[in-house]
Design goal:
657 residues, alpha/beta, five-stranded parallel β-sheet, globular
Length: 657
Amino acid sequence: MPVSDSKIDISPPGGVKDSVKYLFSPFRFKDLTLKNRIVLPALASFLIEDDGSITEKTVNHYRLRAAGGPAMVITEACAVSQEGIVSNHQARIYDDRFIKGLSKIARAIKSEGAIPAIQIHHAGRQTSAKIIKQKPLSPSPLRCPTIRGDVEPLTIEGIQILVEKFGDAGVRAMEAGFELIEIHGAHGYLINQFFSRFSNIREDEYGGNTGGRARFAREVVLEIRRRLGAEFPLSFKISAQEFVSDGLTVEESIRILKILVNAGIDIVQVSAGNDATPEWICQPSFMKKGCLVGSAERIRKALDLPVMTVGRINDPLMANKIIETGKADLVCIGRGLMADPKMPKKAMQGRFDDIRTCIACNTCMESIFRKGRVECLVNPALGREKELEIRLVKTPKKVMVIGGGPGGLNAAWVATRRGHDVQLFERQPQLGGQLKLGSVSNFKRELLNMIRFQKRQLERFKVQCHLDHEVTAEIIKQVNPDVVVLATGSVPLVPSVEGIESEIVVSIHSILNSNRPLPKRTTIIGGGAAGCEIALHLSEYGSPVAIVETLPKIGGNLETMTKKILIKKLKENNVRIITESKLLKVEDNGVVIIDKNKNETFIKTQRVVIAVGYQSDNRLYDQIKSFGYEIHRIGDCLEARSAKEAIYEGMVLGCSI
């Protein structure tokens, strides 16, 4: 049977904690009463079938988010027209046949005590002809800067057809049972394209000055108001800043919003970014928490209108402060509620250490674009809740987990929660494995939140932990487990070149284990994620750094938005980047590298950091197998990859033993 939190021994909540009392105060606008200030904004799950139909998995996804305690849940962007979709897995609302499926989502959200809302959307030029089978529509003959395909500039007649389609979508949304409609006018999609001189160079009444560029949005709002009446709650999402030349600024966004308030919007969600600046849409860990709160505050002061803020708000204490200080009326927490749908309830009870905090790694966004479905590094059950439901076992087993990295930790507490007798062994004096090392850099401190959560689960479910404990054959025989989980991770690869044993050669681990690395002229061998991150870390401490990479580009295995910002920071720190070259030999005062044309170059350096990858640490596997124990390998000891795979495999194994 499924394990419920109600079965777990935790101190009963004594009402809302003072530290979050503003966050959990009610809020009213129009005829809506929100029980607290937390909103799940529209965030793509892509748990939609190719034909746009809603499945039980889709409904369950929204039910679980609503059950966690937010006041309002905004369903992911629904396309108002067939050519307006960005993916075959996007939700749709351009035909009556979609009402039935969407109504299931609305009912599920409402049944869990949250207000069901929906976002309506048209991609404009920010889609592909491969998906929509025609040229994407656009205000002007300007290509999308990321997709770069040919576009079809909209005629005035075409604009009027789309205005009507937005109105049709509004009617369908109301019929489906949603109690608020949000118009997506942000993130470089069609309405945003009309707003901005970056994408709108029209010379007719839909271009030119601010009023002309806001005309399409104004007509959309007026049409929905005409169709639904004056009392139906209507939200508008805007990218108040685009961070591009000729893009929107907060000042112009205020002028636009004043036009839309007069047309009939009731509340605004203040976001940022467009198709050229996606890092402002879904901010990676390099960006400051709450980085868009300031623009929301300015808009709130300028308009007599409730404001929702968004942007790296993953901490309920921070969210509470935003409300307390009057910077916004509502706080949108998107990725945070993907990482932990129960965050609101846990925060209300003061269970902050039990919150699985989003670390802004953008695995969710990367998985949507690369795999067509949402995934989460810290929450492997996202989108797979039924398959990874934690159920009590009928026959408990003695389980020995060897390795206290992310995979081993996840396997240990999940298996214990299911009723197994689990002992965890870690050879280091502290838990976390490579995550602990990775969190040393200033820009990756939030990895500590993941370690904190995992450690809290070990305490909560009373997992027996043996730290600073090297496992030997004798120890395994003493424990005599029914099942062994090998999660021993990986060890750095070392290239076989002349001089590799030189004193100036160091590992990434030795750099990260030092409190403050001394500033030295440094050459990093390897320009993957680890090499780039260690280069930034050292450059921030004053070291002149060069990266040597065999491939044509660095950062090949980095998430797209993280990569963009990381490379920008490397350049700002004057990190020298040498590609299509490899290490030939190490000398006492530098390295010799060789490029693809066999040209050799000497680089004078005081320190050489090897970052060419990892190999599995399988030293115990054959020995344990020879003893006849049931054994499972997870994470890097199976194959050197990332923490995401380790955590997922730990969860899967913990649920299946």
